[in-house]
């Protein structure tokens, strides 16, 4: 399927594009909230600045996809393949990334507050400046991940794999301190 076909079908109300082949599709700034791309091949696709809020991308192949500045608020990315994807400055607030493969992903300055990353593979991912407060990292593998200047609560790391992870410049935020600072 070509990008123009995707946008035309979406414009007339179609939302389910499950298992579609959208490799190398280029749709920056597209308005695609609520789209269903379950099990779709989106490898090397570009969704920069796109609105994918509430989208279902579960089990999708997003290998090397460009999702820089994308709105993925409350999106379902469970078990998605996001190896080497660019999610820099993406809004993944309250998104589900359970068991997603985010090895070597660029998540610099991404908003992951309240996201579900249970069992996710974040090996060697760049999480520099990422907001991880209230994020569920139970069973997540953060081996070699970069957490420089990331905001994180210490209890979130209790059941995560942290081999070769440096937390020296991470902002460790206590849950009570965060509540006190919230207006």
Automatic annotation (TrEMBL):
Record's signal peptide: none
Keyword Repeat belongs to the record: yes
Keyword rRNA-binding: no
Protein origin, superkingdom: Bacteria
Residues passing through the membrane, by range: none
This protein's UniProt keywords: Repeat
The protein, known as: Pentapeptide repeat-containing protein
